[in-house]
Amino acid sequence: MGLFDKLRGGSDDRVVFLGIDGVPHDLVEEHPDVFENLHAIAEEGAGGRIESIVPPESSACWPGLTTGQNPGKTGVYGFQDRESDSYETYVPMGSHVRATRLWDLVTEDGRDATVLNVPVTFPPSSRIQRQVSGFLSPSVEKASSDDEVRRTLERYDYAIDADAKLGHDDDKTDFIENAHDTLDARTDVFRHYVDEDDWDLFFGVYMTSDRVNHFLFGDYATDGEYAEEFLEFYRELDAAIGEIRERLDDDTELVVASDHGFTHLEYEVDLNRWLEEAGWLTYDAAESGDGGEDGVAAAADDDGSDDDAPDSLEDIADDARAYSLIPGRLYLNLEGREPRGGVPEDDYESVREELIADLERLEGPDGRSVCKRIVKGEDAFAGDHTEIAPDLVVIPADGFDLKAGFGSDKDVFSEGPRNGMHKFENACLYTTDSDVEIGDDVNLFDIAPTILDQLDVDADRSAFDGDSLVASE
After folding, report:
1. How far apart are CA 468 and CA 470, in angstroms?
2. What are the DSSP calls for 24-44, one per residue?
3. What are the structural domains, with CATH classification, of the chain?
4. CA-based angle 341:345:346, to the nearest 5?
5. How far apart are CA 97 and CA 76, in angstroms?
6. Which of 91, 394, 408, 411 is nearest to 268 (CA)?
7. Mean pLDDT, the chain, as a whole number?
8. Residue 226: C-alpha distances to residues 144, 229, 416 (Å)
9. Dihedral of alpha carbons 299, 302, 308, 312, sign
10. Which residues pair with 395 in a beta bridge?
11. Rounded to an integer, what distance in angstroms lies between the CA atom of residue 321 and that of residue 282?
12. Are residues 79 and 382 in contact, defined by beta-carbon separation less than 8 angstroms?
């Protein structure tokens, strides 16, 4: 027990949560020599495979994990969401998350929480002990909750994220070096604040693992050029987890989890291009224009050959019947919901079933089905914020990464610089807490209520879509 804990009194129970974005359970279990510390944690407490959420994208996963609630309650469905009653899109930030975060419940209970580098938390909160917002934060200065935090980050050369652009180079040397530098600085800052010993909940996320997986997982899966560098990165990450574990006292439990799994990427699949070729999606040239966030994404690949080409959701025509947003979210262009909806409400179910049938027939260049599972929106999302929920979500078969450009001249199937993709199954959860039981049906929603139980924080359990994994006495 630390000095500050003694002075505060109350419960001695504390938790350190370390997020390892995108780390698959199978990778850890197949390499005990690389993940010595995670295996030791499992031997002391528990460890196992868990499921992600629908859709398994970090922008939706981390709000789900940190609230214990589905996107219908958090209001965040992916990296890009659609405005209600509009074709305008936006990139969700922390301020878009409608559900209560785990650390806010801890703070409301009179305890303290240090929160570092969690995706989709910008701008940082001034209501909790200290915070550094993560992925999508514009700068270290703006990500810091106060000047003391900012000075600490600057002292350690902290970066919000690894430089993913370097991963696009054929020579991955600079990318790998940058990934290690980012990991080292993150660990330095985590150790610094763990040693402060003034928190009840320490919640920090390593996101660099997701970046490494996107650009090197294929090398690992096929014993390619950078297979050893891939595993060496994970040796360092596991060692960092071990160093933090050694700093914890007997009253502090360690929880380590990923938000989704990963697998080898073989083909990128442009669903909007497929919808266009299959007659589901058409564009109105008169509506073409700048196009918001979709336009930003398209502009990055634009060769300047056609200024009137459609580049956003706002460019779809009135007679379009369906469109897609990443990852694998499909929407009918529904009358009364979309501004220029072409699908009558009375035809909703029949048209959706027709789209499902077409998706089930979609095959890749290798003859395999692209869609492993097709989930109806109402089966995945429930809550007060379902007005922008997709009508369908495709969980792809391994190897097919679902994209959604607008007006793209690419083929439906293509190959890019990434060779790793997110996977719904095969996320992981490890904890030193021997009272935790990780069964066959555990998912991200179970983590928040579990941590609250470990902290002995009273909260309304009916708000969660998951259950505590702490065994009842």
Report:
1. 5
2. -HHHHHH-TTT-HHHHHHHHH
3. 3-263+422-463 (3.40.720.10), 267-414 (no CATH)
4. 145
5. 6
6. 411
7. 92
8. 34, 5, 17
9. negative
10. 373
11. 8
12. no
Angle at CA of residue 48, ends 44 and 52, nearest 5°: 140
Nearest to 326 by CA among 408, 265, 401: 401
List pLDDT tens digits, range 247-285.
Answer: 999 999 999 999 999 999 999 999 999 999 999 999 986
Please name the residues in contact with 242: beta carbons below 8 A apart, sequence gap of 6 or more. Answer: 36, 37, 40
Q: Which residue type sits at 217?
A: F
CA 353 and chain centroid, separation: 29
Both tokens of 312, joined, read 């956003």
Q: What is the pTM of this model?
A: 0.92
Residue 144 DSSP code: B
Cis before residue 56, ω within 30 degrees of 0?
Answer: no
The lowest-confidence range among 141-145, 229-233, 405-409 is 405-409
Q: 102 — phi, psi (to 5°)? A: -50, -45
Spatial contact of 312 and 295, defined as CB atoms under 8 Å apart:
yes
3-class SS of residue 295: helix
Task: State how far the Cα of 206 lies from the Cα of 187, in Å rounded to an integer.
Answer: 9
Residue 290 has pLDDT above 80, yes or no: no
Q: In this predicted structure, what is the pLDDT of residue 294?
A: 38
Spatial CA neighbour of 255 closest among 111, 106, 103, 429: 429
